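Hello Y.,

Per our agreement to keep a running log of every chain we model this quarter, I'm adding this entry. I've kept the format consistent with earlier entries: sequence first, then predicted structure.
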Amino acid sequence: METAFEEMAPIISEYLPSGSGFDSGTTLDIEKTTEEKLVFETAFHHMNGHGYYVGWTEHRVTVRPSFYGFDIKVSGRNRNDIKDYIAECFDYVLSEATGENLTKKYMDVVKALRT
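Predicted structure for the entry above:
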């Protein structure tokens, strides 16, 4: 199983949110990820209307496959309706930006979890 997760690491670092508010990057939570879901940890650095940083919110992003793409749940404080934005960012990178490459790696992780 470690090999499948290790192979996903470059994809996670290349495609998943980092910068532009996701200043701490995004990590895959190996302990909480199962064959039914991927679990990511991230945080968002909020700015006010004057461009000054005013605080952080921490989030767990749970992604499950569905018939219509992904079912994405975002935990944590919903400061400035950020949870919708986070879900949109993850949906984009998981379905548009990474394409087949991440889908194949996801299936490899699922297979590894079953063994």
